[in-house]
Amino acid sequence: FIGDSKMWLEANKAMKSAINLPWYRRK
Three-class SS string for 1-27? Predict the structure, then answer.
């Protein structure tokens, strides 16, 4: 499941980036 692991890492990275966004913090 290397492909799935890579997708999970990409999603985790995106989530961390989203947390840093101002619109995400307001909620």
Answer: CHHHHHHHHHHHHHHHHHHHCHHHHHC
